[in-house]
Design a protein that fits this description.
With 178 residues, the chain is of the alpha+beta class. Helices cover 48% and strands 22% of the residues. Strand 4 (75-80) and strand 5 (83-90) form a beta hairpin. Helix 4 (117-130) packs parallel to helix 6.
Length: 178
């Protein structure tokens, strides 16, 4: 069984459940890069959803055979065999806005709601700020800026870098691209 077919079935199942429950959601993480012109391998599914849906989601995932590895107010991680599913729960205005404004994109897994490139940069920058060893996130940020430079809302991107006190990093990345 290929990773693509496994991921495809996993995404299809989870999205069907979330849609059936009327739960807003959007793809984030490695799989969300492809609709924004950045391709890289990943083994898990990362979704943004609202915090109020967390209990309902967990009940359904447990029913589907997932096991909860971790759950907090902000995140949850589930596993079933070799399938990993991670949730980021939106509760703050900025994250709720990204959830509300996620767009529909054609992906190898069908039409999925995906967070904007600017939002992905913000999430990856937050992950990097929380754990500087997450160099994959830094490379994803660079790749997103490189691939989408002409269409990015740089005021929004700059706001994320300012929020995490990383303006010098944005300057460095933009200088690399110049």
């Amino acid at each position: 069984m290929s990773a693509v077919s496994r991921l495809g079935r996993q995404i299809e199942e989870v999205v069907r459940v979330l849609n059936g429950l009327g739960i807003r959601h959007a793809l984030i993480g490695g799989l969300a890069l492809a609709p924004h012109k950045v391709i890289r391998a990943t083994q898990d599914v990362d979704l943004l959803t609202d915090l109020q849906s967390a209990d309902q989601i967990e009940r359904e995932l447990l029913r589907l055979g997932y096991r909860c590895l971790h759950r907090s107010r902000d995140t949850a991680n589930y596993v079933r065999d070799d399938e990993r599913l991670d949730f980021l729960y939106a509760s703050r205005p900025a994250a709720l806005h990204l959830l509300d404004t996620a767009g529909d994109y054609q992906t190898p897994f069908g039409t999925l709601r995906v967070v904007s490139a600017e939002g992905l940069i913000g999430f990856k920058l937050q992950a990097l700020a929380n754990d500087p060893r997450r160099t994959r996130d830094l490379e994803d940020i660079r790749a997103l800026i490189r691939a989408n430079r002409a269409t990015l809302d740089m005021d929004s991107v700059g706001g994320y870098f300012k929020l995490f006190d990383r303006e010098a990093l944005l300057t460095e990345i933009l200088n690399e691209l110049a």
